[in-house]
Amino acid sequence: MKPRCFLTSLPWATVVIALAACGLVSAAEAPPPRKRSDVESILKQAPKPAPGSTTRHLNILLVAGPKDHGPGEHDYPGWQKQWAPLMAKAENVKISTAFPWPQPEQWGSADLVVFYLKTKWDAAQVADIKKLQDRGGGVVTIHWAIGCDQDWDKHSQRFGLSYKSASYRHGAVALKLQDPTHPIALGLPRTMAFVDEPYWPFIGDRSNVHVLATSDEKIYRGDDRRQNPGDETVQTIPVFWTAEPADSKGRVFVSIFGHYTWTFDDPYFRLLLLRGMAWAARDNPYRFDRLAVEGLTLP
Ligand SMILES: [Zn+2]
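Above are the sequence and the zinc ion SMILES. Below is the predicted complex in structure-token form.
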């Protein structure tokens, strides 16, 4: 008898989840593109630089690591390949890359270091961040770059909050702005539909961060195994935040979104990330705004 594929006897949703677990398909569907007119009306609200003003030169270091998920997810090397030339289109910047960690000489010249990778955050790595922050350098982490394997209190002092691989959920998220007046959020809708992945809970004192945007999550209904059947408790979870560690001069911007590659081609996400980068570098938050639509085809 011809052996039957066990998947054909299962409901479709289960098949998708099983294939997704094998990294064969994504369990989530790509979100529809943003409307060009909506993005343009946000861009128009950004203050124009004063006539004759010049932009400060910024050395920006993009740090990626080895890929750890299936196609279209956690594509750190792909991001570095796409975003190095994208960021190089900005005015008065020098873009450098590191994989999987900066060389000692790269730290010294960086004004801003952006991490999209999974790393341990051991004591030497946390010390590198402290040194950068002590001289006023900016730091940005994207998605699993906030995940730390040890000494979470020390890690949270550098990034405002820390995350020990705990709960998470892939899928549709209604992202809610908590501070629409913050320069990073200026003009963005109060609620934005995304398809990505929030994490919870975070380790550290929430009063150490300025939460820009959140998601309301059923905290026992994530994709992980930390379930409590019947418990529908909803908590408001930080998804984007800024921090200014009290013991240094550095600024930090953290994006929990960034699971799916499609998120990096979402102009709303790009605006949050690009403005977060410029803000962390203590510069005009809108200096990279035009890159939010660079290379994208929007309806
Ligand atoms: Zn993820």
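The two ends are 52 Å apart (CA to CA).
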